[in-house]
Amino acid sequence: MKRLLVIAVVVLSGNVFAQDVTVQLKEALNLEYALKDDQALDKYKSILASDPSNIQSLIRSSELSSAIGARQTDKKAKQDYYERAKDYAEKALAINSNSADANYVRAVVASKLTEVETENKKLAADIKDIKTYADKALSIDPNHGKANYVLGKWNFDMLTFAWAKKAALKILFGGMPEATIENAFKYMEKCKTLEPYFVANFLELAKAYKYDNQPAKAIAVLNQLVKLPTRTPDDVALKTEGKKMLSEMQ
Questions:
Q1: pTM of the full structure
Q2: Contacts by 74-80 with C-beta closer than 8 Å and gap 24+?
Q3: What is the pLDDT along the chain (250 residues), one digit of tens a residue?
Q4: What is the DSSP letter of 171?
């Protein structure tokens, strides 16, 4: 009888814990919807303190850390956020290497690290990681909208990288990774269909069309961009940049 009572208490405790985590996850998402990224990240970190293998919290913590890091003006603070984002992503991949979301956020942080990395070997490894993890995400889920964006932007970035980054790639890999403007269009156009409110994708797609001397298409994308709702703390600045670009092209 006592044994049954202990089992019942353990099961009940487990159910209460699971319900508590579910509530906290919902609260964290609501904070994201309210554009309170820092508070949302704290909530996910709180969940991880009691449930370190909660993959949803690891994935969201990684993507939020990358986003918050990008807003930092101090390079050291920026890099610290990116390193934490990388750690969260790798922990998520250790739990499930076949998670499209986990591979996506690992690709995102690799992209962010290229902005602050000064060592050529690490820079080249980050550039390679972007494509490796974005490719893996899309092999798992070809309709992962934001992974399509990352791969499209990777193709565009390979064509427009500063000479110093190109030199690093040539030295370490014996040449530039294969990238085309057509692939940039293909992946970002697919993202536009799958993630119709993802402002960053619209802006990069417009820049790619402008780069390829297709002003009509760039203007059409920008006209869509400026009408998009604000869904992340970065959207206001991105839309402002888009409006400026549109006014200069018209």
A1: 0.89
A2: 75/116, 78/115, 78/116, 79/113, 79/116
A3: 555 544 444 444 455 455 689 999 999 999 999 999 999 999 999 999 999 999 999 999 999 999 999 999 999 999 999 999 999 999 999 999 999 999 999 999 999 999 898 888 888 889 889 999 999 999 999 999 999 999 999 999 988 887 666 666 776 666 667 889 999 999 999 999 999 999 999 999 999 999 999 999 999 999 999 999 999 999 999 999 999 999 999 8
A4: H
Residue 173 · residue 123 · CB < 8 Å? no
What does the DSSP assignment read for 177-236?
A: PP--HHHHHHHHHHHHHH-TT-HHHHHHHHHHHHHTT-HHHHHHHHHHHTTS---STTHH
